[in-house]
Amino acid sequence: MRALLSLEAPQFSLGKPSFWDPIRTPTTLFLPTIIKNQNQPSSTEKLQANAKGFASKPPAPSKENAANKNNNGDDEQVPQVVFERMIARILVSVGVPLATGLVLLHLFGVAKEQNLWDVPLWLPFLTTFITFGASALGIAYGTLSASWDPEKKGSFLGLEEAQRNWVEMWKEENDGQW
After folding, report:
1. Which of 58, 115, 121, 147 supports an S-S bond with 154, CB 3.0-4.6 Å?
2. Residues 82-99: pLDDT tens digits?
3. How far is it, in rounded angstroms, from Cα 72 to Cα 78?
4. How far apart are alpha carbons 32 and 27 in whole angstroms?
5. Residues of the chain whose pLDDT is less than 70?
6. Which of 68, 66, 61, 87 is nearest to 146 (CA)?
7. What is the pTM of this model?
8. 7 has which bridge partners?
9. How far is it, in rounded angstroms, from Cα 153 to Cα 160?
């Protein structure tokens, strides 16, 4: 390390005396300064450090280990059609409550600024809590309300699929226990 820290002359002085001790002189703060060496490389140069860890050379991954990591048999891959269906439902079930909450907050602000209505302070808090909370729950609902069967599209709201998928999800969870 080629930089030195030193305490120079006071750089910052509080001119106003303390409220508690009016006789006291103005407080002086001593801030450290950095003195750079001219031979020190600038910050734009690349550092030349090679981290080696405990071994000089990392072990080469074998093809068998890589195949076992990708296909461990426990997780099955979600079909692309089902994945897109879940993403669409998540976007709708998160976006609608979130947009509603933002619009209501804006409307409450406009009503208060224009003196149209003296909005009670608790009302924006309550609407924010409800709409943003519904938006957070929309992630789970969007996933559960999508039909997990690639050939079946599902209903508009997805209530039947949510009930079926909820039971299926916990059945898989309970089967994996010891």
Report:
1. 147
2. 999 999 999 999 999 999
3. 15
4. 16
5. 1-74, 176-178
6. 87
7. 0.56
8. 32
9. 12
